[in-house]
């Protein structure tokens, strides 16, 4: 469990950092700039910092965590340190801070602003899955307590889906079982569930790059290079191939099909939970559960690329463990700076993962 926990949060931080420069870009623009984005250029965003903060709440309160505990923590540890703008914070988190300052309590704090459907909860849901290995329902219940403070509706459902997926991956589920677990903890007629089903259908119908079928492989061991065992995983996309982000490989057809299935093109913002969660799970399936293949495909989809990469990396990292994260990516992950949340400055995701594992 410790190895899977470390893989999960390391994968989250790596996906966040890899996708950060591609945030809000189109797949075509990403291809123009990088061809295929495979190397981490800088640090992560609020996704990693909020995941670390969520983990700290679990370490303190365990399965007894309540929305009131989360609101009290915001008031004691986050709001007093917000002297100016919260750099990089999402709309839902900014709205929550203002609601708490006004004296509101959850669930009103997540209902009063107009961004309850944001992927802010989904981006930080992975620790709840780590804390409930093999128990998607409990992971979803816990993350909802966090979500009631900052979100509502589909925003909470997106967090539930990610927490459920990570919990299943922590328990050794196959990629298909992981996605089924995500669907099991949200209503079948929800926007999020419909999007997840749509991308799963796209992956079953659109040819994979190079003519390979996107067969789902079960999580396996890791190779000596720290990037996972490719030889025993024929269903995954080999990160060394041109891959889905290269139009010459035919992968652009898959990217466009996924966009047609779930992207709300007319909406000006990209942090839409049903969209980001569905695209991240699609990337996880397309990558056969491998961290590098899943994350690089995820960030090639553009839109909220850092969050898509973070979710895909978290789920794949939980499935593959720490050695499943490429060593060159792991070397680029350092302690967070606290640029958005000063309370977590200096903390490293591996230390946080160890704390969560100790509480299991």
UniProtKB/TrEMBL annotation:
Annotated spans, Disordered: 208-251
Biased composition (Gly residues): 220-229
Stored SUPFAM superfamilies: ADP-ribosylglycohydrolase
PANTHER family linked: ADP-RIBOSYLGLYCOHYDROLASE (PTHR16222), ADP-RIBOSYLGLYCOHYDROLASE-RELATED (PTHR16222:SF12)
Record's protein name: ADP-ribosylglycohydrolase family protein
